[in-house]
Amino acid sequence: MQKRTPGASILRALEYEALEQVQLKGRILDFGGGQGASYVPHLPKEIDLVSVNIDEQYKPTVIVPVGAPLPFDDNSFDGAICLNVLEHIFDTRFVLDEMFRVLKPGATLHISVPFIFRVHGHPDDYSRHTSSWWQETMNRVGFSEMTIQPLVWGRATSAQLIRGNGIWPWFTTWKNVLRDIIIARISSKDRTKMIGRFADRTAGVASGWQIAVTKPETMA
Which of 65, 75, 81, 110 has the fewest CB atoms lying closer than 10 Å? Predict the structure, then answer.
């Protein structure tokens, strides 16, 4: 994956790999992105992408200040993405409520957020939440059909995010990836996915989460 995304961190490589599996059609809200975002080449070409950001350098469709409501009608988007943004927003619940409002019933929101990852401010960095926090918060907002996928190869690559890449970043990354793959093959009975206690322990050191939640077709 890093060969297709030169210079990407372990977290971003995992995010882009997951993003390419996401089904997006129609009018899509890109919250916190823009045409200058590095993940845009990984999105389907045929979607109608409408982006909001606080920073002009990302070439968003609309500039929206922090804490301001989204300038869109209720139920006006077929889906939404929000990648590596919510850790930079203090009032996460307000943003989630706004995205919920502008999504059509049945539309899905796809979020990527870091978990085990360094503090990085743009303009600030406020949170690292567990999967349980995300599940409870999404339930309170009103979303349903939730999936939370840990973005992780294993303990070696997650530890690299803390220790750093060393003198030879490419070699360090692939050495740790190979180590995690070998350990997963030895420890997991299933050859295609991690299951059981080993999977739970590995998810506990995830570099981030890929979250998909759907707005119910009918509101209670």
Answer: 65
Query: Which domains are delineated in the chain?
Result: 10-152+204-214 (3.40.50.150), 154-203 (no CATH)
Question: pLDDT > 70: what percent of the chain?
Answer: 91
Q: Give residue 121's pLDDT.
A: 79
Q: DSSP assignment of the chain, as one string?
A: -TTTSTT--HHHHHHHHHHTT----SEEEEET--TTSTTGGGS-TTSEEEEEES-GGG--SEE--TTPPPSS-TT-EEEEEEES-GGG-S-HHHHHHHHHHHEEEEEEEEEEEESS-----SS-------HHHHHHHHHHHT-EEEEEEEE-S-HHHHHHHHH---S-HHHHHHHHHHHHHHHHHHH-S-SSS--HHHHHHHHTT-SEEEEEEE--SS--
Q: What is the pTM of this model?
A: 0.86
